[in-house]
Amino acid sequence: MKNSVLHPAASRFHADHGWLKSAQTFSFHGNYDPQRIQFGALRVLNDDTVNGGKGFGRHPHDNMEIISIPLEGTLEHQDSMGNVAVINPGEIQVMSAGTGIYHTEFNKDADEPVTFLQIWLYPNKLNVAPRYDQMEYASGDRHNRFQQILSPDPDDEGVWIHQNAWFHLADLDEGFEAEYHLKNNDNGVYVFVIEGSIEVNGQVLAARDGYGFWPEPAVAVKALAESALLVIEVPEKW
């Protein structure tokens, strides 16, 4: 497809720090490829596994929208705004770093690993007041449908961020076909397969593959096996 990028799972960057194993779709820290910096406003998509009781020590962020989606295990968060929280599978966490924030992220369980998606988006407003939020979503609401978990509107379904972006999760039965309709036809779409195998607009994707394309008013998805996926709709330019 014209104006598309395919990121097979095996092509991701990898970092192994012992306590942390990270598979990185885009350039991150010491892993750099000038052809894989971002997809529109989507800057980071890391698939992280942290050993029991370990985690990221206190570190800063600014002017970035940071989203965490636990897949297995529990993640403990603390930040310089005084927030202390535990994030579980079935929840989404968001931070607008804005003018600056410090935080830590640790595996709450001393024995079992935690696996989560760490996602960064460039904001459409700089130097906003830092903010934190998290939300639980009902897993049944994404069975054979696209469940919205993030948007730019505080009054809409899911958490909100300072960017014209939308996140949707879907759990699809084998053979099920669905269409995702863009909220803004000028946006791009990045599809990340969490589990299973799907076909997206004719492109076959396996677990942990990523596929981005634009502009496309609708996205046709067919599950080739029982599958879970994350659809990230973001501006190509902002």
UniProtKB/TrEMBL annotation:
<dbReference type="InterPro" id="IPR014710">
    <property type="entry name" value="RmlC-like_jellyroll"/>
</dbReference>
<dbReference type="InterPro" id="IPR012093">
    <property type="entry name" value="Pirin"/>
</dbReference>
<dbReference type="Pfam" id="PF17954">
    <property type="entry name" value="Pirin_C_2"/>
</dbReference>
<protein>
    <recommendedName>
        <fullName>Pirin family protein</fullName>
    </recommendedName>
</protein>
<feature type="domain" description="Pirin N-terminal">
    <location>
        <begin position="15"/>
        <end position="121"/>
    </location>
</feature>
<dbReference type="InterPro" id="IPR011051">
    <property type="entry name" value="RmlC_Cupin_sf"/>
</dbReference>
<dbReference type="InterPro" id="IPR003829">
    <property type="entry name" value="Pirin_N_dom"/>
</dbReference>
<comment type="similarity">
    <text>Belongs to the pirin family.</text>
</comment>
<feature type="domain" description="Quercetin 2,3-dioxygenase C-terminal cupin">
    <location>
        <begin position="149"/>
        <end position="234"/>
    </location>
</feature>
<dbReference type="InterPro" id="IPR041602">
    <property type="entry name" value="Quercetinase_C"/>
</dbReference>
<dbReference type="Pfam" id="PF02678">
    <property type="entry name" value="Pirin"/>
</dbReference>
